[in-house]
Amino acid sequence: MTDKRFYQVLVPAVVLFGFLPFGLGSYHLHVVIVSLFYLMMASSWNLLAGYTGQVSFAHAAFAGIGAYTSGILAVRFGLNPWIGVVVGTMLAALLGLAVGVLCLRMGGIYLSLTTLGFSEILRIIITNEYEVTRGTMGLQVPGLFAEYSKVGYFYVMLGAAVLTLIIIYRLIHSNIGLNFRAVQNDERAAASLGVDVVRVRVLAFTVSSALAGMAGGLYGHYLLLITPEIPSLDQQFLVLSMTVIGGMGSFPGPIIGAFSLEILSEYIRAYGEYHVLVFGLIALVAARFAPNGLMGLAKDRLVRRRAPAKTVAAAAKS
């Protein structure tokens, strides 16, 4: 897809999306806002896992860093939440850079285990530092607006989601994106051609962490309560599921996955304690019959539909 084509699709879609608050009630608007949060999370995790092949389990932890940084600065120091979100994003990027420099030389399962440990360490610190984070009780934080407005938060999350998508699109369709794919496909061949493999991985990790930090900061101020649930492994695996089921390594895949699974989770919430089981079964069925995600399934059907048409055209020519 060319840049012109991308913006021709993006701009009308955003304009149409912008009319949603006029036709949705409070509950459905909340579902859309949460979906936009997961869109940012899944798309930024896809940048790392889908385009460089590095599986990190610390993505939700970086969202938590952005959320808690902004929340603590607002509650303890009276800092404006908007500035707090920027600071939280920068801190998530810096910690992502530090973790990336330390861990990304290892790669593979070692990176996954290290980021898993980082995520658990952060959760333990948040839970036990009650005086600062309020532990499992959660930290009550001020909103981004003087008067709480769900419509206002919708447009903020929509703007942040669009910014996230543009950053990711520009990256993967640049020379840096070519390096991402080269490292993912064969890092030794990429290194032999002069690609700095570690630097490419660290760049993807840092950008991905920063975007997660921004999403977490905005989401925390939307909820007005920041709990250890945001940086939890449950959130991490939910983001991973959205990316994989939507289509890892494709640009629209995480967008489709985020909206599909968030809306689905709202419907099956009626099953009470069993909703997690139902959600897992649906995810397993999707993984079994659509290993390349919903995007892969759609592409396969499109190819099958075009194949007979080409055969008929070839027969007519002969």
UniProtKB/TrEMBL annotation:
Subcellular location per the Swiss-Prot or TrEMBL entry: Cell membrane
Keywords in alphabetical order: Cell membrane, Membrane, Transmembrane, Transmembrane helix
Membrane topology note: Multi-pass membrane protein
GO cellular component: plasma membrane
Molecular function as annotated in GO: branched-chain amino acid transmembrane transporter activity
Database matches in InterPro entries: ABC_transp_permease (IPR001851), LivM-like (IPR043428)
Listed transmembrane segments: 6-24, 31-51, 57-75, 82-102, 151-172, 202-225, 237-256, 276-298
Main localization of the protein described in the UniProt heading: membrane
Full protein name: Inner-membrane translocator
